[in-house]
Specification:
Strands 1-2-3 form a three-stranded antiparallel beta sheet. Strands 6-7-8 form a three-stranded antiparallel beta sheet, with helices on one face. It contains six helices and eight strands. 16% of the residues are buried. It is α+β, with helices and mostly antiparallel strands and 250 residues long. Helix 3 packs antiparallel against helix 4. Among the domains are: 111 residues; 59 residues, no CATH class. The chain starts with 16 loop residues before the first helix and ends in a 9-residue tail after the last strand.
Length: 250
């Protein structure tokens, strides 16, 4: 195709065929590398193993055992959760629960404990988001009533106590975030405790009354519905929790 030149030619140069071919080759290599990068990344992520029911159990698993001592029995429960390590030695390494066992000298609850552990182990192996188990177990209430643990925390049932163990384990392996108070909440709780201690000192409460509580909190404390701890006291005409800082007055 002919091209009409309307302006004057003020200079020219001869194209080096060898240099042109080298530039074309470099451009093609860069384009090929750019096209191959997403494919390589997709291939590397496709090799990541996620938890599912077809993952075979290795000969050795990492386990953690938790002791549960309740006023419902003279014998403690020992809960063992075994974890499998997926993609070990890579940047995608994950630790996930694989199976759970519960052992005790008390055989009163043997049938439902065996059934529960088998179901929970099956849920673990299924993979996906298993954190829902914590809320499901926490929502089980004993019709005969619950009990208070050391520290004043209320537990509505033995099943809910197992939920506490599962929650603690999932936090330890990074599947759940810790429920610890942040800096501002902790500061608020510390201030409320100091205020209440000052009120007690002014009222000159008898030492035996101070130590009558079942926990580290004042005697007569009410149950906090937010953290399930017997730590709600009345300050300035308002119910305030000395454990989590929750207040009915906002």
């Amino acid at each position: 195709m002919a091209t009409k030149i309307d302006s004057k030619i003020i200079g020219y140069s001869v194209v080096d065929a060898t240099k042109r071919d080298a530039e074309d080759t470099t451009a093609k290599q860069l384009q090929t590398a750019a096209n191959a990068a997403p494919e390589a990344e997709e291939k590397s992520t496709s090799n990541v193993i996620h938890m599912h029911e077809k993952v075979e159990r290795p000969d050795v698993l990492i386990g953690s055992t938790y002791k549960i001592k309740t006023p419902l029995s003279d014998h403690a429960l020992y809960v063992t959760v075994n974890d499998i390590v997926l993609n070990q030695g890579t940047e995608h390494e994950l630790r996930r629960p694989f199976e759970i066992f519960i052992n005790s000298k008390n055989m009163d609850h043997f049938q439902w404990i065996v059934a529960l552990t088998r179901i929970m182990s099956a849920v673990f192996r299924k993979g996906g988001d298993i954190t829902f188990l914590v809320e499901e177990l926490h929502s089980v209430f004993d019709p005969r009533g619950g009990y208070f643990k050391k520290g004043g925390k209320f537990v509505p049932s033995l099943v809910a106590e197992l939920g506490n163990v599962i929650e603690e384990h999932l936090i330890s392996i990074g599947m759940l975030k810790s429920k610890e108070l942040d800096e501002h909440q902790q500061k608020l709780v510390t201030e409320k405790r100091a205020q209440y201690a000052a009120i007690q000192a002014k009222a000159d409460i008898a030492p035996e009354a101070k130590t009558a509580a079942v926990s580290d909190f004042p005697a007569g404390s009410q149950l906090c519905m937010k953290c399930n701890t017997q730590a709600m006291i009345i300050m300035d005409g308002c119910l305030t929790c000395l454990n989590c800082g929750d207040s009915k007055c906002g």
